[in-house]
Amino acid sequence: MNKNESEAQSAAVFVYRLVFGREEPAIWLGHLDMMRTFERSLRRAKIPLAWSHGYNPRPQMVFALPISVGMAARADLLDVSCSEPIDPADFLRRINSNLPAGISVSECIAVEQSRDSLMSMVDQAEYLLEAENICMAAEVVLSGNEPMFTEKVRKGKTSSVDIRPLILEWKCHQQDSLYIRVLAGSSSNLRPDLLLKHFVDQGKIAQLSADDAAIIRLKLRLK
Amino acid sequence: MNTVNLPRHLLRQVSKPARYVGGEWNSVCKKLPDSPDGDVRPFVRFAFCFPDIYEIGMSNLALRILYDRLNKRNDIWCERVFYPAIDMVDKMRELELPLFALESKSPINDFDLVGFTLQYEMCYTTVLDMLDLGNIPQLTSERGENDPFVIAGGPVVYNIEPMADFFDIVLIGEGEELLPELIDCYQDWKLSGADRNEFLYKAAAIEGVYVPSLYNVSYKHDGTIEAVFPVDEAVPQRVLKRIELDLDKTDFPVDSIVPNMEIVHDRIFLELFRGCTRGCRFCQAGMIYRPVRERSADKLLEQAIEMEAKTGYDEIGMLSLSTSDYSQLGCLTDSLLEVMTPNHTSLSLPSLRLDSFNLGLMEKASRTRKGGLTFAPEAGSQRLRDVINKNIAEEDLLSAMKLAFAGGWSGAKLYFMLGLPTETLEDVAGIAELTAKIEQIHRELPREQRPRRLELTVSTAFFIPKPFTPFQWVPQMSQEKLHEHQRHLRSLIRSRNVKYQWHEFGTSWIEAVLARGDRRLGQVLRLVWSRGARLEAWDEHFDLERWLTAIEDCGLSIDFYTSRERKYEEILPWDHIDCGVNKEFLWQEYQRAQSGETTPACHEACMACGASCFGGGICYEQK
Questions:
Q1: How far apart are CA B499 and CA A22, in angstroms?
Q2: Does B8 touch chain A (CB under 8 A)?
Q3: Which residue among B35, B204, B412, B590 has its CA within the 20 to 30 Å range from the CA of B394?
């Protein structure tokens, strides 16, 4: 893009999609911590951020799907808006040398600015759950077809939901390692800890092994 | 290297596990040297402990400064240790996990030196609990050749006597040079192969180092001190504090740790100066940090730019005891705003003395809403303000409020103390009268020149007499009288525009005991701790009854420490510590207080307090 064009599009933003992972110790951060941490990392990396307008301008960053405390991720997605174009390879190098322990970005892709936010495009998620006896539990519980009612606490209210329709695919890797593909996003979403809770409630795995489980989000699928 | 493994189920069961896992940007991890050779300097592991939870401890500047200072040396690894929140402490005890440092996860009894920074007296029982959690014997006399040395520093160590049984070494004053010197001494001692006691003697020879166990205290029949004397001729009679004379030449941590989770003061700080010229008679900080030493605006701007780049923070704050007194405040603010605004970095100004100049600065800096103005008249009447040497006149306060209303501020928070020396119900009523006058000013302003709704907050704390202040001799007001004064104020504040907040009495009472306490309180502290006291700086964990019972069980009297007037001749438990300001000056100030005579600030006139002995700072500047 030459100088004249870039001036003509001064309000334009350039969106970059980051594919990032997190492992120990960063799995213990909450979603807000992740936002704060990425914002500061981007500032340290001197990425030309585009700022929102209005009273209290914020950098424009959109995470595809919030990640819960205690969960690792291999390929989560984050869209970052920039005020000027930047070479994705350069972006990748700069951000990776400014992230705290346990967080890394594997890819940076320039994407079209779209009307739909990244959050609304999330459709499915794939997880790996590692816990003692989890495959035995899965064979017993997931092979059937009766509803899997599970108690869910949200904003202090307890409700019972059938989580079976949210599970699209499952596979046992080894005896203690279960792969699941589930619905994800703003309309229907299965948090994997709910499945672990169901296994515990059914007496298939111990509470302690559920609490000790490794939960890894392998991938997000977009519509 | 031993490390503590934190199982996932543990971290899932506690709130905010990010407190315990480390890995923050700019935190320092080092490799331990393979095998210590005979000739090389021994590698020293230093655990910097803050006796409160992560969010509080990470907001402390001393930790930032010393972490940076020590880790710059490749023969030292300084790590951080905080007190875990109560849910975590209980779980750790259940699982028999020892207290560990965030960087390496090593248990703290694996360290050479374990140093605590003490910012307030109510952290003492937390210190004892941290030692216990870390499997370090609490009493210095119980520690053996394989235990770490336990060190203390920070503002409350000017009277560390109540904790004298628990600290091997106490550092008086600023640690930037003192702490590395102590570590050098430790390395020499380690190479020499001498016994534990030998190091304590060597350390005691360093200026600014106080080794409590090398001093004996004898008491008179009435419980006051007969004498404090070193056990040996080699030990100095008095310990003079250490300070940094030229702050521009003193390193400041520009690549400070960036926490992943939110902390209390979640911004980067510029330290404008140390000390305070004002000489308020109740204020310990105003005395122990003398003389005033400033950092230049050029240096601060340079640090701000570097800090912003190296941390990614979007907010910069300023730190000092009285920011309005910084001589280059205007030009510093202007240049910071010029450099920071394009980066969307905001400047948060602390509470400034209200005049038109400062209001202008605050207006320029306030990017968003007109937030809190705070203001500390401390006492309700001019008479009492003269007694405490708080140099604020009512007219100035009222005209400042007028300016503030015109500038769009809708109110202010006013801080006062109750129970000040000579305080009467009339003085207390003055607080309510002052708020009424502010309300009147608001009412009388034309509608378009004032905010629609006025919001005033009055906050009171109970006065606690502190060592090294002119009020170190005064009795604390009795509990009955304090309650009477507070009730009186509550009954007088009736306006719906004024909110009244107050501090709990119990904590202030015990804080008063510890602040001017002696070594005999060590047994009380241990007893209170053994009965479950910890994290008592938090009101919900403080139990007054537990303290009163323990004081009684140890055969001590609370009145002896709080409500007794001390005589000039009395040997005070901290008299062998020297903060530069001498006892004669403090006594003279106490006499002036009683006659309501004010004392000028250092930049107006020198009152020869003694702080010039350090050979620098404001004492040697042109008036």
A1: 46
A2: yes
A3: B590
Domain match, B219 and B297 both: no
Smallest Cβ–Cβ distance between B314 and the set A30, A37, A43 belongs to A43
Residue B156 CA to residue B136 CA, distance in Å, equals: 22
Residue A187 has pLDDT above 80, yes or no: yes
First to last CA, chain B: 57
Query: Which pLDDT value is given to residue A6?
Result: 41
Spatial CA neighbour of B554 closest among B512, B509, B517, B522:
B522
Domain end: B240, B265, B285, which one? B240
Cα B244 to Cα B121, B173, B196, B250, distances in angstroms: 25, 9, 30, 7
Same domain, B378 and B503: yes
pLDDT computed for residue B39 by the predictor: 62
Same-domain status, B308 and B398: yes
* Full domain range(s) for residue B480: 247-520+585-612
Same domain, B217 and B305: no
The DSSP bridge partners found for residue A18 are: A78, A108
Which tokens hold the place of B344? 């969307």
Claim to verify: residue B371 and residue B257 sit in the same structural domain: yes
What is the predicted pLDDT for the residue at A211? Answer: 96
Query: Pairing between strand B209-210 and B169-171?
Result: antiparallel
* B184 touching A (Cβ < 8 Å): no
Banded pLDDT at A1 (limits 50, 70, 90)? very low
Gap between the Cα atoms of B47 and B110, Å rounded: 9
Give the percent of chain B with pLDDT over 70: 98
| Domains in chain A: ranges and CATH | 3-114 (3.30.70.580), 121-222 (3.30.70)
Cβ distance of B21 and A214 shorter than 8 Å? no
> Do B262 and A33 make contact, defined as CB atoms within 8 angstroms?
yes
Residues B274 and B197 in one domain: no
To which residue do tokens 């006291």 refer? B533
- Asked if B9 has any chain A CB less than 8 Å from its own CB, the reply is yes
For the stretch B162-177, pLDDT in tens is 999 999 999 999 999 9
The CATH number for B399's domain is: 3.80.30.20
Confidence band for A3, pLDDT divided at 50, 70 and 90: very low
